[in-house]
Amino acid sequence: MTQQERLHLSEHFTLYEMMRSGTAIENNIPNIPNLQQEQALRHLAIDILEPLRRQFGPIVISSGFRCQKLNRMVGGMPGSQHTRGEAADIVVNDVERGLRMLAFIKARLDFDQLVWEPLGAAVPRWLHVSYTLRRKNRRMIL
Ligand SMILES: [Zn+2]
Question: pTM of the prediction?
Answer without folding.
Answer: 0.94
